[in-house]
């Protein structure tokens, strides 16, 4: 069962489960106009609240209904200020927790932040389940995303009508983190590796969630997780280095559009540290506030506030950390589930110690109150356009139809040699095999599907009574016996029971199906009742689960060989403190309590049925074979767990090969939350198709594509690499330095970003630009005729990329600027209009700390994928010429151009500022520096280690000409800086690259090169 809180509490012995460029106004990447409704404005409410508080006692109305904060004719600022002025200090502090208590004296009900709604309403019961977010990203259809968001918002209102206190309208969705690395455990939750596509889809979804009223919100969407979050290993302890260019060019564009437009009403802070400082106390949170006229509410992730002290050790006490979080911008503390005592005690103590003022509390509470006002909580029902939504809106026929449409639109045809579409004749015989052929899986943030159409069921329904479907899961069926001849026996009861070893017995009760999911992990299903085996009461094994589930996933095992053909069974659940081996108790029960393989029970594995052979036999002789493989979303990649490898599990690879050999008319369906490395299948299988875990309508949508009722038009939102060896170090978040994503990857991908085939062909005509030159504040419309030259109607996703030909800095190989998913009937031509804003071409100039559109020519590339460019033209931009660096001015060290692997950006102080930290041999480079008339070097450095070290100033390379070495002394701590200096030898040049090379461990915050007097 899923918990009723946003994240489940961890066991005491483990770490808590943690967590610019405006988007262009073109045909695809379009920004909606910012809403004009009054909202909480920066810096106004706290002053108003103080004034109201001073006069509140003078004349109290006879009823709470008559108080000014209940007056809908007043502005939100005025209403928030009035209410803040009437709340006591303790009431306001209590409102800082996720679970805000009721205030009966003012007739105010309880309120909670945070209901999960990533691709449907989650955890509250049966609701429409749409495809995973990565699948929705694969639709490349913002209009569809907005409609889905609207449907999810409507269902959320339906749940809210059932239980207003428990089913809150502040939804924590969508995830705007770009999918930088396919190994990220939470890949399924994001939209794309491209920040622009992510920002467009996030804005569209929040637009639907928030509703279409000028003032009232259907729901209040909150973007997750700001910022630099993309790794699960020690996610609450790792610090990611995000240089200024990556921050402004890759992180901000994913989050900014939804905030800037007003569609997203909040942001959630990430679990990780960014540039040495916990995201929960980062000054970047205030940067988010500057993007919108209406200040968003900023919430913590679950247990994030406690982490700042408990696992991040950033502050010594919770009063200190909570004061820092309030000042940084956190408005709502999601911590300790429903227990608000830590939050209340910490904030109260911080206030009494003078670490914060009541104005800091008012500002935070004011942000959450502004959301409550816009949700209509304090207004007559007749004014709220969403108040009449009832529970009947949940799982409506319209939403079921939309779920099927979405599932079909995200289906992506990877390869097709003519096998697809399949023939659905009256006597058609199709084999549907594989571990995902006869099941649908939910993920952690999924809702509960009201019904399920599996791939096999969808195909059978499509074939009708005249056709036939043969199935096989491709899983080995085995019997486990002890050396003395006893067999593991399962209960046949529907709700299962304890697994035991017994002599004799019915062989049907001893059959166990083994499903391998990669990295040696297997799940076990007993055929006695068809239930999955998991850890239960008393550390015994029970066959009582429909599928792997739960925060700790207690249904995972490994077989370990111990010799003589025997194995031991290791429990490998996500409760890592409890991973032990299976033994046999005195009563014969299988129990997880052995510390070592030597103490575990040994088993002999008898194969009753070879799954691969059974699947091949089912496929042989059929008109077609459909192999459905992929991942189980609770295993080997999910929250708290990154993937080690991107290849399919070994048994699934063998299954594909065996079925393809048995039937040359084989289609592989990859049903997966992330890209898979399938080089053999790509080369040898006639047809392949990718789908995310697409919800309740997966089977119907898949069948419609396989049999040609739907012409596929999904496009990959991520690069599919050939193997893990193609991927750079996962901990390097800086895509410019690491070579992540299609923008900077130099290798040959298995399938490129934007790839996807159709059952028809499209021909591109010459693109026409309405102008060939634009200024740095200009724009250009690109019109390209696209003709459907095939015999089927279909959708084409027309993609526009640009590449800057000359620049002071490294530029992307290409970058998506606009796109349009357009329907074109067979034989018809449609002229697609795409837009390029000059502002889209800007990058972050580290020399002047601002976005710059550089004077340059740009290749304008139009095509069907990032590697399938059909037409090119050129655009000239009359932009800025970046002058040489003037290092005689104070230069922030973090504004480097390039750096060595060991360099990290760290916190200059606990409150603000960035420094650079390195060790012996590390370096940072400042390109194109004006070195005329320089004579000296000064810098601010800190060094915790005892003794001195040095900082070298070199030209041209890390081992280039040495201009001087400054001695760096030890200081009182990493936040204590001292000025160092040294004279410089003559540079002998004009514009050169300057390298600062570290002789030992040190931090540098800023520096300058002093000039000679002339």
Automatic annotation (TrEMBL):
GO terms for molecular function: alpha-L-arabinofuranosidase activity; beta-glucosidase activity; carbohydrate binding; xylan 1,4-beta-xylosidase activity. It comes from the Bacteria. Residues 1-19 have a biased composition (Pro residues). Residues 796-866 form the Fibronectin type III-like domain. Transmembrane segments: none annotated. Keywords: Glycosidase, Hydrolase, Signal. Gene3D superfamilies: 2.60.120.380, Galactose-binding domain-like, Glycoside hydrolase family 3 C-terminal domain, Glycoside hydrolase, family 3, N-terminal domain, Immunoglobulins. Residues 885-1011 form the Cellulose binding type IV domain. CDD domains: beta-trefoil_FSCN_BglX-like (cd23343), CBM6_xylanase-like (cd04084). Residues 1-24 are annotated as: Disordered. One of its GO terms (biological process) is arabinan catabolic process. Belongs to the glycosyl hydrolase 3 family. This is Exo-alpha-(1->6)-L-arabinopyranosidase. The gene is xyl3A.
């Amino acid at each position: 069962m899923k918990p009723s809180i946003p994240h489940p509490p961890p066991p005491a012995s483990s770490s808590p489960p943690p967590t610019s460029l405006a988007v262009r106004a073109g045909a695809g990447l379009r920004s909606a106009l910012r809403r004009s409704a009054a909202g909480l404005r920066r810096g106004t409410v706290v002053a108003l609240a103080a004034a109201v508080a001073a006069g509140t006692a003078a004349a109290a109305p006879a009823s709470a209904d008559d108080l000014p904060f209940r007056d809908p004719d007043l502005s939100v600022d005025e209403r928030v200020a009035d209410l803040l002025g009437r709340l006591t200090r303790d009431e306001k502090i209590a409102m800082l927790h996720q679970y805000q208590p009721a205030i009966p004296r003012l007739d105010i009900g309880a309120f909670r932040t945070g209901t999960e709604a990533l691709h449907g309403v989650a955890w509250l019961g049966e609701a429409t389940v749409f495809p995973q977010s990565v699948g929705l990203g694969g639709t490349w259809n913002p209009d569809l995303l907005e409609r889905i968001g609207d449907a999810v918002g409507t269902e959320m209102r339906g749940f809210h009508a059932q239980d207003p206190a428990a089913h809150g309208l502040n939804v924590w969705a969508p995830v705007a983190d770009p999918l930088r690395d396919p190994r990220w455990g939470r890949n399924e939750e994001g939209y794309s590796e491209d920040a622009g596509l992510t920002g467009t889809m996030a804005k569209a979804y929040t637009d639907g969630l928030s509703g279409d009223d000028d003032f009232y919100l259907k729901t209040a969407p909150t973007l997750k997780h700001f910022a630099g979050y993309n790794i699960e290993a020690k996610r609450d302890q790792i610090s990611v280095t995000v240089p200024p260019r990556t921050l402004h060019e890759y992180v901000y564009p994913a989050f900014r559009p939804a905030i800037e437009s007003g569609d997203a009403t909040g942001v959630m802070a990430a679990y990780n540290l960014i540039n040495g400082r916990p995201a929960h106390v980062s000054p970047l949170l205030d940067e988010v506030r500057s993007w919108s006229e209406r200040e968003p509410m900023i919430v913590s992730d679950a247990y994030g506030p406690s982490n700042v002290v408990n696992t991040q050790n950033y502050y010594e006490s919770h009063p200190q950390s909570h004061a820092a979080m309030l000042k940084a911008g956190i408005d709502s503390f999601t911590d300790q589930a429903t227990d608000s005592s830590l939050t209340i005690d910490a904030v109260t103590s911080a206030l009494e110690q003078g670490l914060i003022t009541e104005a800091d509390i008012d500002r935070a509470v004011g942000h959450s109150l502004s959301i409550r006002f816009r949700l209509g909580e304090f207004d007559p029902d007749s004014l709220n356009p969403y108040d009449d939504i009832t529970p009947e809106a949940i799982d409506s026929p319209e939403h079921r139809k939309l779920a099927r449409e979405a599932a079909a639109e995200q289906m992506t045809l990877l390869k097709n040699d003519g096998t697809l579409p399949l023939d659905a004749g009256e006597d058609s015989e199709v084999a549907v095999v594989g571990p995902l052929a006869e099941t649908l899986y939910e993920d952690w943030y999924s809702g509960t599907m009201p019904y399920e159409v599996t791939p096999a069921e969808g195909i059978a329904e499509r074939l009708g009574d005249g056709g036939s479907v043969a199935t096989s899961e491709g899983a080995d069926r085995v019997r486990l016996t002890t050396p003395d001849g006893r067999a593991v026996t399962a209960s046949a009861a529907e709700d299962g029971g304890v697994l035991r070893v017994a002599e004799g017995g019915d062989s049907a009760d001893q059959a166990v199906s083994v499903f391998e999911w990669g990295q040696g992990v297997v799940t076990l299903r007993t055929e006695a009742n068809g239930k999955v085996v998991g850890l239960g009461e008393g550390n015994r094994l029970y066959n009582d689960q429909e599928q792997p589930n739960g925060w700790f996933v207690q249904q995972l095992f490994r077989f370990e060989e111990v010799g003589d053909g025997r194995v031991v069974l290791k429990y490998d659940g996500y409760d890592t403190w409890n991973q032990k081996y299976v033994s046999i108790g005195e009563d014969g029960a299988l129990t997880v309590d052995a510390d070592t393989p030597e103490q575990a029970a040994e088993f002999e594995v008898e194969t009753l049925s070879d799954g691969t052979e059974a699947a091949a036999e089912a496929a042989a002789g059929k008109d077609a074979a459909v192999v459905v493989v992929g991942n189980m979303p609770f295993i080997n990649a999910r929250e708290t767990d990154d993937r080690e490898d991107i290849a399919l599990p070994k048994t699934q690879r063998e299954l594909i090969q065996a079925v393809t050999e048995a039937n040359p008319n084989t289609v592989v369906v990859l049903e997966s939350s992330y890209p898979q490395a399938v080089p053999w299948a790509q080369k040898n299988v006639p047809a392949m198709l990718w789908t995310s875990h697409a919800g309740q309508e997966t089977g119907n949508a898949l069948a419609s594509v396989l049999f040609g009722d739907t012409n596929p038009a999904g496009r990959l939102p991520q690069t599919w690499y050939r193997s893990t060896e193609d991927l750079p170090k996962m901990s390097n978040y800086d895509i410019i330095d690491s070579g992540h994503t299609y923008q900077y990857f130099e290798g040959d991908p298995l399938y490129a970003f934007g790839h996807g085939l159709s059952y028809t062909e499209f021909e591109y005509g010459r693109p026409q630009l309405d102008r060939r030159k634009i200024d740095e504040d200009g724009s250009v419309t690109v019109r390209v005729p696209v003709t459907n030259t095939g015999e089927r109607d279909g959708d084409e996703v027309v993609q526009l990329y640009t590449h800057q030909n000359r620049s002071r800095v490294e530029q992307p190989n290409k970058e998506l600027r606009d796109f349009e998913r357009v329907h074109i009937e067979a034989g018809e031509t449609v002229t697609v209009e795409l837009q390029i804003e000059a502002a889209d071409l800007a990058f972050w100039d580290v020399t002047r700390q601002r976005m710059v559109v550089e004077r340059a020519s740009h290749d304008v590339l139009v095509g069907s994928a990032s590697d399938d460019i059909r037409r090119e033209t050129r655009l000239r931009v009359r932009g800025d010429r970046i002058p040489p660096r003037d290092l005689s001015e104070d230069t922030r060290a973090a504004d480097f151009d390039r750096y060595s692997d060991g360099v990290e950006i760290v916190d200059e102080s606990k409150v603000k500022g960035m420094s650079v930290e390195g060790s012996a041999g590390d370096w940072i480079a400042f390109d194109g520096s004006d070195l005329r008339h320089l004579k000296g070097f000064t810098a601010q450095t800190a060094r915790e280690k005892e003794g001195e070290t040095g900082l070298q100033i070199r030209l041209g390379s890390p081992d280039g000409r040495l201009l001087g070495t400054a001695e760096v002394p030890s200081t009182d701590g990493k936040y204590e800086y001292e000025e160092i200096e040294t004279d410089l030898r003559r540079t002998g040049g004009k514009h050169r690259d300057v390298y600062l090379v570290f002789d030992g461990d040190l931090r540098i915050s800023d520096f300058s090169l002093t000039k000679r007097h002339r």
